[in-house]
Design goal:
- It is a single chain.
- The longest helix is centred in the C-terminal third of the chain and has 20 residues.
- The chain has about 450 residues and is α/β, with parallel strands linked by helices.
- It is globular and about 60 Å long.
- Helix content is about 40%, strand content about 15%.
- It has a 7-stranded mixed sheet, with helices on both faces. A 4-stranded mixed sheet has the order 3-4-5-14.
- Helix 1 packs antiparallel against helix 2 and helix 5 runs parallel beside helix 6.
Length: about 450
């Protein structure tokens, strides 16, 4: 872990810097963190701002590191699961939108930021998610914050999976509603919590995700939606990582688990499978109408630019026209998982996210540098964002990765573990504990 000497000669971790900074005025706090960050960049190729992508996001990218050197790298750190960020058809549709609508709208949707293009996307997304209507947001974060700060009221109560995204939790806090987490995917605890508050006044909301971003596992959605309906709870599904990839035709996890039309609100983002930015909330028409007037993240934000709307519409076209994109992603995940299991890792390969548990005692940043030097762009999740026992590399796959790419990654993983894992520790010896709440 990068350290910074203190006045007493002790070293400071980033957590120490942030905690200590709370007692300092802004400029001193920022200077302290900036000094620490400069040291962090010296230690790790993967530090904040230390790698700059100089090309379109695809299976291979050009990357400039902290030294200024530029090199081609295989991208295993992008959520563009279907490889649409640089797809020729998407680029063509975006160019057409620029010629017809320009590059922006210059206002929020209730004033001048709503066009036929925006309405077309709302209607197509609603049909795509098996819902009546859909509301567009500027980002997936804004969608979660906008929904969770607008729908529940202070007399309601929210129960949510402990691994729910920070945007969900921030939205609840902004709305002032009480909330209780349950252990990840623990159906018995969810049932117990809803049973205990069944007679209490107000609505009950249940927040879950379709695919969890760090572990790449599914929620047991069929059972969760059944439990919600049994207790009359309102279900909020964050399907950021499931939209476009979870079910045939690119449908999300609601379709995969046979509960399409039974989820009350589906929140999604365009920054994963669609490869751009923006978010949405698909739901009933009355709730959508309510969000358009009561959701501050919608009312007081400029609308998505026509370029983004056109890119998502093109992505929806491609889900129908090129189903092989989804097939390739699934095949890539299965192939890589098989290779990881051969190395001793536990890997399911059910989604495009595969975590690599890092054993305690392994120098995570040195390992990250080794992947970088081999031309592989991976994300590493380290302490204090997670406990030392939860540190991991997070592999994100794309449909455009080739078998040769995956073999190169597997070879690098074997070499890096042989070099940096503590003596006698095998890949399967490190097992990820459940991540702490965001």
């Amino acid at each position: 872990m990068t350290t910074l000497g203190s006045a007493k000669g002790k070293s400071l971790t980033v957590r120490d810097v942030l905690v200590r900074g709370r007692r300092l005025p802004l400029h001193e706090r920022a200077a302290l963190f900036s000094t620490w960050l400069a040291g962090a960049k010296q230690e790790s190729m993967g530090g904040v701002g230390s790698r700059i992508v100089c090309s379109p996001i695809d299976r291979e990218v050009l990357v400039a590191d902290r030294t200024g050197a530029t090199q081609p790298m295989l991208m295993f750190g992008s959520n563009s699961y279907l490889g649409l960020t640089n797809h020729p058809y998407v680029r063509e549709r975006v160019h057409d939108a620029i010629r017809q609508f320009g590059v922006g709208v210059g206002g929020p949707p209730l004033l001048n930021g709503y066009s036929l293009l925006h309405r077309e996307l709302e209607e197509r997304l609603a049909e795509f998610e098996g819902c009546e209507d859909c509301v567009l947001y500027g980002s997936g974060y804004s969608a979660n914050v906008g929904v969770m700060s607008a729908l529940p009221t202070p007399q309601d109560h929210i129960v949510y999976d402990a691994l729910s995204h920070a945007s969900f939790i921030d939205g609840v806090r902004l709305g002032g509603t009480s909330m209780t987490s349950f252990p990840h995917n623990d159906l018995d605890e969810l049932d117990a919590l809803l049973a205990a508050m069944h007679e209490q006044p107000g609505d009950r909301y249940v927040g879950i995700e379709g695919i969890y971003s760090m572990d790449g596992d599914f929620a047991p959605l069929t059972d969760i939606i059944y439990t919600c309906q049994r207790y009359g709870a309102i279900s909020i599904l964050d399907d950021a990582h499931g939209t476009g990839v979870a079910a045939p035709g690119g449908r999300g996890t609601a379709t995969r688990f046979g509960v399409e039309g039974r989820v009350d609100v589906i929140v999604g983002t365009f920054s994963k499978a669609f490869g751009v930015s923006g978010g949405f909330a698909a739901t009933t028409k009355p709730i959508a109408d309510y969000l358009r007037l009561a959701s501050r993240a919608y009312v007081f934000s400029a609308s998505l630019p026509p370029t983004t709307v056109a890119a998502v519409l093109a992505g929806l076209d491609l889900l129908d026209q090129e189903p092989e994109l989804q097939t390739r992603l699934i095949d890539n995940a299965a192939y890589l998982a098989q290779g990881l299991r051969a190395l001793g890792f536990e890997a399911s390969g059910n989604t495009g996210i595969l975590p690599l548990p890092v054993p305690v005692g392994m120098d995570l940043r040195a390992a990250a540098r080794a992947f970088h030097e081999r031309g592989l762009f991976l994300n590493h999740i380290e302490y204090p964002a997670v406990k030392v026992s939860q540190q991991r590399f997070r592999i994100s796959l794309m449909a455009t990765h080739t078998t040769s790419d995956l073999d190169r990654l597997l070879t690098a993983i074997e070499e890096v573990w042989a070099e940096f894992a503590p003596e006698g520790v095998k890949p399967g010896d490190a097992v990820l504990e459940p991540l702490a709440e965001s």
